[in-house]
Automatic annotation (TrEMBL):
This is Glutamine synthetase. InterPro entries: Gln_synt_N_sf (IPR036651). It comes from Amycolatopsis tucumanensis.
Length: 125
């Protein structure tokens, strides 16, 4: 665990934060998220948080389109990795903090359906 992540965890705990919501926008612009306790941040930064690959084929009504080979069933794993240097405490919900996230393949490589990664030109770890 890096010194910066340890310091962030300690700072969040001192501020009374009990959950860090890691968010991403899906292909329809709908915000999706997962929340971890501060003690789970180091693991989330290192290995990510499990997310189904089906989010890549949800439509704007949360129906599964089955439009792409390999993305029509829930098996598999995509990892949601928080941008730890972008964590902010939420002023309206003082027990929570927020961070943007990026979706990566289970092995940490680029995942071709990650909207943030595509827009950033494939920038990764």
């Amino acid at each position: 665990m890096s010194k910066d992540v340890r310091a962030t965890v300690a700072e969040l705990a001192d501020q009374g934060v009990v959950g860090i919501t890691v968010a991403w926008a899906d292909n329809n612009g709908i915000t999706r998220s997962r929340t971890v306790p501060p003690r789970g941040l180091p693991s989330a930064v290192r290995a990510g948080i499990g997310v189904t690959p089906l989010f890549a084929v949800f439509d704007s009504h949360d129906a599964i389109t089955f439009g792409h080979k390999g993305l029509g069933t829930p098996p598999g794993d995509v990892r949601l990795v928080p941008e730890a240097d972008r964590i902010v405490r939420l002023s309206g919900q003082s027990g929570f903090a927020w961070a943007p996230g990026r979706l990566v393949a289970a092995d940490g490589s680029d995942w071709p359906y990650d909207p943030r990664g595509v827009l950033a030109g494939g920038r990764r770890r």
